[in-house]
Structure formats: C-alpha cells, structure tokens
Amino acid sequence: MSFPVTALILAAGKGVRMKSDLPKVMHPVLGRPMVQYVVEAVRRVGAEPVHVVVGFGRDHLIRALTPLGVGFVDQTEQLGTGHAVQCFARAHPTPPERLLIVCGDTPLLSAETLQAMVDLHRRERPALTMMTLTMTNPGSYGRIIRNERGEVVAIREAKDCTEAERQVREVNLAIYLFEGAPLYERLFRLSNQNKQGEYYLTDLVELLARDGHRILTVAERDEVSTLGINSRADLALVARLLADRLLAQHMANGVSVLDPRQTWIEPDVTIGPDTVIWPGSVLTGRTTIGRRCTIGPHAVLHDATLGDGVTAACCRLAGVSVPDGTTVPPFTARPEGLR
C-alpha cells in the first residue's frame, strides 16, 4: 500500500562557529557536501519529493543540490526551526500527507532508524513520530517530557528547562515525521515567547498533546549517528568516523588496507578484491580500481580507472585509464603537468 512521505531538510543556517563564507551544510565530508548524505538517507526510506530550506549562501546550495533533483524553500530570516517549516507551508499551502523533517548537518544520520520511524508511523498512524536518544550527559539537547502514563507531552529546550527537567536523560534529536494535516493546523500558532525569541518546532509537540493527538518515539541506539556538525573540529571528527565505516566495508569486501589511519578513500571509489592499499594513499572522486592491484604507498588517484593487477606507487593520477597489468612508474603525474 502506498505510504507517501515528503522530506524537508533544514539547511538555512550560516554555522557561525565554522567561521566561513560557505554555508555550513556545504562543507565537504569525504568530498561531498554534508547535506548530500542527508538527502541520500531520507531517500533510502522512500521520501519523495525532497525539499531543502535555504537561506545563508542559498546560491551555493542551489547550484550544488539541483543535480540531485531536490526542491528549495527560501528562509530569508533565520527565526527558528518552526519558522523554517512555516516557510515551507507558505510555499506549499496544501499539506503533504506526511512530512519528514531532518537537519542538514547530520551526515551520519541512520537510514535504519529512519526506516524504523516510518514503519512505526505506518502501523500506528499517530500525529507525530520522532527520534529520541537516552544520554548520560544530555547537555544542551532538548528534553523529552512525559506524563505519568509515559506519554510524550512536550519537548523543553535546554535553555528553557526547569532544574527538574534538566535531569531528564531522554533527548530530542530533531527528527520528526508529522501527519501533514495536524501539522499545518497548528504550525502558525507557534509563538516566539522564549529566551531565544525564536519559533521552535518543538512547541508543536505540546500543541498536539494538548489536543489529544498521539505522539510516538523511536529510540536511536547509536549516539554516533546523531552527531551534528557545528565546528571544524566536528567536521574532522565526522569525516574520520565516516571514513572508518567505508574502510571497514572495503576490507569486508576483500581489500587489504594496511594502515587505515593513513588511508583516505571517498564514498564513490570502488576497489576490487585482493587489492592492497598501502599507507599514504588518497583515493577520491569516482576512482575505480580492479582486482589484485597494489596501490601506494603515497598514491593520489582522482577519477582514475585502473584495470586488474595494476601497481601504482608514489604517483598522482587524475581522469586517466590504466590497462591491466601496468606498473605505473614512481613520481608519475598524469595528466601531464598535474601537481
């Protein structure tokens, strides 16, 4: 049975701590804008169409993401997450059947947990299903407030919590699957009467609960997958985590990576079994490497195609094809003049 889900990715913020003219979500993680991983994650659970809320640096985002077939919604002033969704509603006055809302700065977002959300929502048909996490030290995360029956009745932003609410360890991960009609009926009732002067999307939880609507949660078990990027240090950490995942996949597929900590492989690289990757290798773009190759040490390959049994050490190759059985001479740079 058809279960339409529209996705909305919040990506309008500047990311002040990045100290950059580039929009935060455009900073690359393993050669891709971080927001591209989020687009791919929501599509893996069947969300379509996908819309991206843009604001700061909108032209960068539109140029980069238009080839992915997403739509765009302008948020010219960043007045909070609730305001971002209001901008979507103004641009699309007819409510979608369901709206999956996620943040664009979470490239490790788990498609498996998203799928669990969609499956639960399909079975139970609540007004809202959202993702939560139980943390030892919740810090600045918004707290999930439940009543005596265990039902979700509110989300309280950390800055607005009472002392008792700060002790709650279940937190909001800002990933929501709304039924479209009840969302739109309450969206413009949001208020900015809070310490930040913003329109919080989280306030919709309390509005839905007061009106007797059911709100369900799915627990994320892997705290790593929830990491957002707010600084250059966060960017490096998430890139390393994602790189480790990719390296583990290659090794599980029969590739020997002699020193994973000194090897960089981007997501669109393919490598055949029994190939050995030596330290200092950097494999980027759509590089394709055949079976039984020896790569490195210190090989830099971008958009290169290597046949079976190729040896390539201490070289830089970009956009070239190397036949089976070739030994690339050390210090080769192709095309000519590549530095």
TrEMBL record:
<keyword id="KW-0573">Peptidoglycan synthesis</keyword>
<comment type="similarity">
    <text>In the N-terminal section; belongs to the N-acetylglucosamine-1-phosphate uridyltransferase family.</text>
</comment>
<protein>
    <submittedName>
        <fullName>N-acetylglucosamine-1-phosphate uridyltransferase</fullName>
    </submittedName>
</protein>
<keyword id="KW-0808">Transferase</keyword>
<dbReference type="InterPro" id="IPR029044">
    <property type="entry name" value="Nucleotide-diphossugar_trans"/>
</dbReference>
<keyword id="KW-0548">Nucleotidyltransferase</keyword>
<dbReference type="InterPro" id="IPR011004">
    <property type="entry name" value="Trimer_LpxA-like_sf"/>
</dbReference>
<dbReference type="GO" id="GO:0003977">
    <property type="term" value="F:UDP-N-acetylglucosamine diphosphorylase activity"/>
</dbReference>
<dbReference type="GO" id="GO:0019134">
    <property type="term" value="F:glucosamine-1-phosphate N-acetyltransferase activity"/>
</dbReference>
<keyword id="KW-0511">Multifunctional enzyme</keyword>
<comment type="function">
    <text>Catalyzes the last two sequential reactions in the de novo biosynthetic pathway for UDP-N-acetylglucosamine (UDP-GlcNAc). The C-terminal domain catalyzes the transfer of acetyl group from acetyl coenzyme A to glucosamine-1-phosphate (GlcN-1-P) to produce N-acetylglucosamine-1-phosphate (GlcNAc-1-P), which is converted into UDP-GlcNAc by the transfer of uridine 5-monophosphate (from uridine 5-triphosphate), a reaction catalyzed by the N-terminal domain.</text>
</comment>
<dbReference type="Pfam" id="PF12804">
    <property type="entry name" value="NTP_transf_3"/>
</dbReference>
<keyword id="KW-0479">Metal-binding</keyword>
<keyword id="KW-0460">Magnesium</keyword>
<dbReference type="InterPro" id="IPR025877">
    <property type="entry name" value="MobA-like_NTP_Trfase"/>
</dbReference>
<dbReference type="InterPro" id="IPR050065">
    <property type="entry name" value="GlmU-like"/>
</dbReference>
<keyword id="KW-0963">Cytoplasm</keyword>
<dbReference type="GO" id="GO:0009252">
    <property type="term" value="P:peptidoglycan biosynthetic process"/>
</dbReference>
<comment type="similarity">
    <text>In the C-terminal section; belongs to the transferase hexapeptide repeat family.</text>
</comment>
<dbReference type="GO" id="GO:0046872">
    <property type="term" value="F:metal ion binding"/>
</dbReference>
<dbReference type="GO" id="GO:0008360">
    <property type="term" value="P:regulation of cell shape"/>
</dbReference>
<dbReference type="GO" id="GO:0071555">
    <property type="term" value="P:cell wall organization"/>
</dbReference>
<keyword id="KW-0961">Cell wall biogenesis/degradation</keyword>
<keyword id="KW-0012">Acyltransferase</keyword>
<keyword id="KW-0133">Cell shape</keyword>
<feature type="domain" description="MobA-like NTP transferase">
    <location>
        <begin position="7"/>
        <end position="129"/>
    </location>
</feature>
